[in-house]
Amino acid sequence: MKVLVLGGAGFIGSHIVDALVERGHRVRVFDLPNVSRSNLYYCLHDIEMFEGDFGNIQDTTRALEGVDVLIHLICTTLPGPSNENPAYDVDSNVIGTLNLLNEALKHRVKKVVFASSGGTVYGIPKQLPIAEIHPTDPICSYGITKLMIEKYLYLYHRIHGLNCTVLRLANPYGERQRITGVQGAIAVFLGKVLYDQPISIWGDGTVARDYFYIADLVDAVCRIIEQDPPSLVYNIGSGTALSLNEMLEWIRRVTGKTPIVRYEPQRALDVPINCLDISRAERELGWMPKIGLQEGLERTWAWLEGQRVDLGRRR
């Protein structure tokens, strides 16, 4: 199959691209011109690279030529900043995706896989773990736009017969994840520990999230595109919740270093706990996470230490 990965040069996308190439698929990556290609180092000569702007219909139309499967990973906002300009969030993500779906229909794309947010679309949970049938009441614009896109995918499935699957992802972590920024707690925390910098925690550290290793996410995506799953939506995560304080203790054990922590005021956009019920994916896809937290953290830490060594050699 020919697979187009939107956002394929990023953390999640590059791991998916590596796996697809290894499994014999023809892969095309679409990303911004100014995005680094370093994540695609191992497969750059085995893929097609298309540069463009997700908001430009001409760019995405060109990238869709001859494509069988579309994997949509692009999002122009983050949960926190999204509340500052909801109109931009809707225009860049929802309208951009609607334009993309219309072009996908014209190009007879056989399957669309969309990366949604299991951490934000449900809002404050009414029961745990959170199953796919749980009410969806997001409390940030990021989650609202993810849910809007899900609804439009369902609409296009109903009225146009578009074959689509939504993956409500928990919090993936692993090699290649950025250690700077405001998303990806594990990578950010490990980066701070690596360089002996303080970690900022919003609230008292009891906020709990569902973390899972990047290789398990990749396995789920490959199963989706190579099978014909019966459901539209799947939760993908570990099925367990870990508080930020517990995560800090795990990081201390794995790295042998005690994190420097600063506790800041709680943010209104943070739900107190998120833990996904992954039984539907286990039952219908034959998928379940294989890499435990300790092994995943050890792999990620080893990669980060290797990156620091490489940077030191280049200076």
TrEMBL record:
What is the organism of origin for this protein? Answer: Desulfatirhabdium butyrativorans
Domain (NAD-dependent epimerase/dehydratase): give its ranges.
3-237
What InterPro entries does UniProt report for this protein, alphabetically? Epimerase_deHydtase (IPR001509), Lipid_A_modif_metabolic_enz (IPR050177), NAD(P)-bd_dom_sf (IPR036291)
| Protein name as annotated | NAD-dependent epimerase/dehydratase family protein
